[in-house]
Design goal:
Shape: globular
Largest sheet: 6 strands, antiparallel
Number of strands: 15
CATH class of the largest domain: Alpha Beta
Structural class: alpha/beta
Helix content: 40-55%
Length: 358
């Protein structure tokens, strides 16, 4: 899978921009706050119809404008697929092959990608919500139906929590039971999909991590299901607690993911270097997992992370990705990038202007 080109209209600081990409390696060089990350964010937006940096859509639209558009052409096994996402105050419209997709779940997966940004280095020690988002975003790309069930689950969760806000004496046990059933229908699907995903990802990550550590460390991924047994029974048992707290206390919205090296929790006992190696192992593992699931290698976005990794990890990252993925790298300097291939496209970014260096 390759992204041949992209066009931006009123996206962040870009009024109009059109770029053609190298099929293997694209390097964006420039100082901070010049617009490098905005390019990768636009690619992410084209793939997933949302940003990896903000949940506030208005921040994506250029100042004083009311609408943005990102379009591009993806090269896949079956041919070229034009993609387009438009965002305004009424919402977003996603098109594949010039046809509007009524559900975003039907659009996502047209362009699969892996994003590795500085915040991903906190995957191990960050809040559980970071790891849940990681599972949701990656699963959504390879299993579009997962997004559908996730939306339905969150909608049912919102309705149940809203009902729990009522005075406890006014809550009807029968209605609460109906809300429980709706939550379980979609929640059990999320749990099953996450369990399968983490099992497969763990197998790939274990192999990658063993290679990166020369066999000295064994990495294990553990899916920490909040629901230990029967979901419906767990909800019923907590009715009194949920009425008291005015929120749903059990379900996949409270799941977590644990990383273990040689039987020790990396978040609690691992060094910073180990935590970064784990994050790197997981991201590299996704490359082959997505290929297994879709038959296409994803594109790889590396947003200012090379300076965060030591020389050995940089080489591991580049050597593992090149030849498989089309890769996009943003950096402030070439000083820390060693052994880069000569066949690449280099773009200089300065004050929102991009020039291509041949």
């Amino acid at each position: 899978m390759k992204l041949n080109q992209i066009q931006l209209t009123n996206f962040r600081n870009y009024e109009q921009l059109s770029l053609d990409f190298h099929p293997q390696l694209n390097l964006f060089l420039g100082e901070n706050a010049q617009g490098k990350t905005n390019i990768l964010e636009a690619i992410y937006f084209l793939a997933l119809t949302r940003s990896h940096r903000t949940s506030h859509d208005k921040e994506l639209i250029r100042w004083s404008e009311s609408e943005l558009r990102v379009s591009g052409v993806v090269e896949k096994n079956e041919g070229r697929v034009p993609l387009e996402v438009t965002l305004n105050s009424k919402g977003r419209i996603a098109k594949a092959n010039h046809l509007k997709e009524n559900r975003l779940a039907d659009y996502i997966g047209q362009l699969n990608l892996i994003m590795f940004a500085p915040e991903n280095l906190d995957l191990v020690k960050g809040a559980p919500s970071v790891r849940r988002r990681f599972m949701d975003m990656e699963l959504g790309q390879i299993r579009p139906v997962y997004l559908y069930d996730s939306v339905r689950y969150n909608r049912a969760l919102k309705e149940r929590n809203a009902y729990l806000k009522f005075d406890a004496s006014k809550i009807d046990p029968q209605l609460l039971a109906v809300l429980d059933e709706q939550l379980v229908i979609h929640g059990e699907k999320l749990i099953a999909e996450r369990a399968t995903f983490i099992e497969k990802l763990g197998t790939y990550a274990q192999a990658v991590h063993a290679q990166l550590t020369h066999g000295k460390e064994r990495l294990t991924l553990i899916y920490e299901k909040n629901v230990k047994n029967d979901f419906l029974s767990a909800l019923t048992e907590r009715h009194e607690l949920d009425r008291f707290r005015h929120q749903t206390s059990v379900g996949p919205h409270r799941d977590d993911l644990t990383f273990v090296i040689n039987d020790r929790n990396v978040a609690d006992f691992g060094s910073q270097g180990q935590q970064r190696t784990v994050a790197l192992s997981v991201k590299l593992a996704e490359i082959d997992l997505i290929f297994e699931e879709t038959g296409e290698y994803p594109i790889l976005l590396l947003d200012d992370v090379m300076s965060e990794l030591d020389h050995t990890r940089q080489l591991d990252l580049i050597q593992t990705s090149l030849g498989k993925t089309q890769t996009f790298i943003t950096t402030t300097s070439l000083e820390h990038l060693k052994n880069m291939p000569h066949d690449l496209a280099r773009f200089t970014v300065e004050r929102g202007k991009i020039s291509k260096n041949d």
